[in-house]
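Tokens for Interleukin-27 subunit beta. Go.
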Amino acid sequence: MCLKSSLYALSLFAFFPQFWSQDTSSEPKDLYAALGSSVELPCVNGRTNGSEWRLNGSFLISSPVLRLHNTSLADQGFYTCHDSNGEIVETVRLQLGYPPSLPDVHCWSPSYPLKALCSWTLPQDPILPTYYISTYRYLEDIYSCQRQSEQDRQCVLEELDLFSIVPYLVNITAVNALGSRSRVLPVILEDIVKPDPPVNLKVTALPGKKLHLQWAPPPTWPDPVTFPLKYKVQFQWGHNDATSIMGPTESESMVRSGVMPGRTYRIRVSVMDLLGHGQSSDWSDTVNITLPRS
């Protein structure tokens, strides 16, 4: 909990240094607000006489206070307050959006048992710059779920225990200037095994109405000998996508008999952990082959 609080505070300081600042320097001040809300912009130092507000250089109102109601994206921009001489005494950049929604988190292991991946999306675009904190917890230890960049929405979990009955708790927190939301997802490594699709599928016609198929395991699967795989092969043909499936098989090749001359077959392969952990991969790229009629 302390780590989470510290990371949250640090992220706010680093990425959103001011929700609303009273600094009177000439630098523009950032103001963040929710779309549809009301916003009040007072001119600095209590200046009232002759004050006027402009948006991106266009006159809005002669008043020391600018009030915006039911704000929309059209209200975003640089607001400047001018004194009676036309000099700028205040510049505010208004940015509108939403607080983060609850992240949708999905985890899978294409490289079992070495690592797992987690990715996430936000159901609603917050529009505002949004930062993500990604961690995972096992028992009393908390680890950073590593990302390639701060805006990357995918992270890597490494050195996970095999066959643990205690789940890892993946915590994804989305943070922007209007708030934060966190999703905690319990993960058992064996439950999220999902290999990448097989590769290099090759199909050749053989005499006697046969097809020879050969493929390779996914290159992201680190050790097919210690952690073997099983494959299934899908055949489709015709306008109605008639389908048959062969397998599962541990072999990386297969002969299909009884194929019809003149027919075009669409063939693809999927793979799964031999012991049935997790789920099957997506299908490989499809290979088409048409058998000659003679």
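Residues 198 and 218 are 5 Å apart (CA to CA).
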